[in-house]
Amino acid sequence: MSTIEKTQEEVSVQELVGINNEIVLYNDDVNTFDHVIDTLIRVCEHTSEQAEQCAILVHYKGQCTVKTGAFNELKSQCTQLLEAGLSAEII
């Protein structure tokens, strides 16, 4: 007869969920679809399809998460989105 051993590992909640933040892009009445798509491709390195889908979601839902990662990695990208006239924040 063989013995099966179970071990329980302690893992912090922060490790389980990660320390990811999100850049959320918000809808506005100023920017065109083309500007939003071009900016997402340039700043967030989206493919044209990804950028178009995000632009559509922002338009119809009011917001969309366009990038996830560590805060330090997202800070400059969010700043570039804001400088391009888009409404975004890191949450």
TrEMBL record:
<protein>
    <submittedName>
        <fullName>ATP-dependent Clp protease adaptor ClpS</fullName>
    </submittedName>
</protein>
<dbReference type="Pfam" id="PF02617">
    <property type="entry name" value="ClpS"/>
</dbReference>
<feature type="domain" description="Adaptor protein ClpS core">
    <location>
        <begin position="22"/>
        <end position="83"/>
    </location>
</feature>
<keyword id="KW-0645">Protease</keyword>
<dbReference type="GO" id="GO:0006508">
    <property type="term" value="P:proteolysis"/>
</dbReference>
<dbReference type="InterPro" id="IPR014719">
    <property type="entry name" value="Ribosomal_bL12_C/ClpS-like"/>
</dbReference>
<dbReference type="InterPro" id="IPR003769">
    <property type="entry name" value="ClpS_core"/>
</dbReference>
<keyword id="KW-0378">Hydrolase</keyword>
<dbReference type="GO" id="GO:0008233">
    <property type="term" value="F:peptidase activity"/>
</dbReference>
